[in-house]
Design goal:
Helices cover about 40% and strands about 20% of the residues. By secondary structure, it is α/β, with parallel strands linked by helices. Strands 1, 2, 3, 4, 5, 6, 7 and 8 form an eight-stranded mixed β-sheet that branches.
């Protein structure tokens, strides 16, 4: 009986160990990607404000995930996601569309493609197109585990002066995701008490609006996180969110004050496409 009991206990311990291995491996892979040598020192210095480990973990990003990043800009998160997903996952970077006509769109897309060509770590990245005013296939329909967008919503809202472009964008994300897939949103957060102010050119967005539009597109709010919150940010700066680092739009004027505040207060929202 004692031998049998000992066997059962050991079997249980072994099972527990096996069950913890995937979680440990996933944790390790993400940390290795964040510490990857291809990341620039300038980008690494912003980890203290952007919390990439906590943020990507909250959004269920794993090494074997199919991930779409919307409007990756200069590639801050690309430097993490590309090495993380290169071997077992899939990374779609939905940048400016190839048929864009503006000089800005052409220039920024070209710069991003040049970055990808500069290092083999980016060789598995698939570049697609995105614009908020019409549908683009950011990834094959129903294939993505996670769609991510970081500090982009205010650009789409300002450009089109309303919620319509946001809804089009969210529907695009919904189409790309698998049933049960995650939409992760990080955005500069407008305090709800300032909804009656002239906030639309400030770079800040009301969290209540983002949730409402996402739900209209068919998403369910699955969770919120305060990992990117900054209680020092009052969201009422002379040049909007661009008053704060890293832009520091006022340059030397009150520079120390705004550096002390740090980067903006940000909502971190996790939505899920309903499972079929």
């Amino acid at each position: 009986m004692k031998a049998l009991t000992k066997f059962v206990v050991l079997a249980g311990l072994f099972a527990c160990t096996i069950n913890t291995l995937p979680s440990y491996a996933a944790t390790n892979a993400l940390r290795e990607a964040i510490n990857h040598p291809n990341r620039s020192a300038v980008n690494k210095a912003r980890d203290v404000h952007r919390h990439p480990y906590e943020t990507l973990s909250f959004f269920d990003v794993k090494a074997d995930s199919t991930v779409v990043e919307i409007s990756p800009g200069g590639g801050w998160y690309t430097e993490i996601l590309a090495p993380l997903l290169k071997e077992k996952g899939k990374y779609y970077a939905a940048h400016q569309p190839a048929d864009a006509t503006s000089d800005y769109a052409k220039r920024t897309r070209a710069a991003y493609l040049e970055k990808l060509a500069s290092d083999p770590v980016y060789s598995a990245v698939t570049v697609t197109g995105f614009a908020p005013d019409k549908f683009y296939e950011v990834a094959p329909a129903g294939t993505a585990d996670v769609v991510l967008t970081f500090r982009n919503l205010h650009n789409w809202y300002e450009k089109d002066k309303g919620e319509a472009s946001l809804l089009t964008a969210f529907k695009t994300f919904h189409t790309a995701l698998k049933p049960g897939g995650v939409l992760g949103v990080v955005e500069h957060r407008l305090p709800e008490s300032k909804l009656n102010t002239d906030w639309t050119e400030s770079g800040y967005m009301p969290q209540s609006m983002v949730i409402r539009v996402a739900e209209q597109a068919g998403f369910v709010l699955d969770g919120t996180s305060e990992v990117n919150a900054n209680p020092k940010d009052t969201a009422d700066h002379p040049k909007g969110v661009w008053t704060l680092p890293p832009v520091l739009a006022l340059k030397e004027q009150d520079k120390a004050k705004y550096i002390a505040i740090g980067e903006s207060d940000r909502m971190t929202l996790k939505f899920r496409k309903k499972a079929e």
